Amino acid sequence: MKLDSTCSQTLSRLECGELLSSVPIGRIVFTDRALPAVQPVAFCLDGTEIVIRTTAGSKLATAAIDAVVAFEADDFDAAMRSGWSVTVVGHARAVHAPKEVARLSRLPLIPWMPDGRDHFITVRTDQMAGIRVCC
After folding, report:
1. How does pLDDT run along the chain (135 residues), one tens digit per residue?
2. Contact at 8 Å (CB) between 36 and 69?
3. pTM assigned to the model
4. For the chain, which domains are there?
């Protein structure tokens, strides 16, 4: 679908952050054995960082250590043909400091999978861009 300028709007960084805060699921893009990989994840924002809870030793946990990753979240109403998409590129890091792990454990972050998700990854929002579509 080709968008004309009357039905799309570029979002500010503030608007992007507000929209990211409004959804619980996004997709992280990372490198797995030199190939791009995409994984849906539960997340929340902690200030300007995206926080993801995963399993230690998982592909994501291993690949996201000190790596540049991409992240995307969106919402779309097919009936109304409206929605938004926000993309982020930033540096990911594993969280190991006990005080920080304890603090992140108190965030309203509910893991998508219930099994032992006790490893935290944060992603800085170095680059953030978004678009809103309403046709």
Report:
1. 344 556 889 999 999 999 999 999 999 999 988 899 999 999 999 999 999 998 888 888 888 888 999 999 999 998 888 999 999 999 999 999 999 999 999 998 877 666 666 889 999 999 999 999 987
2. no
3. 0.88
4. 8-134 (2.30.110.10)
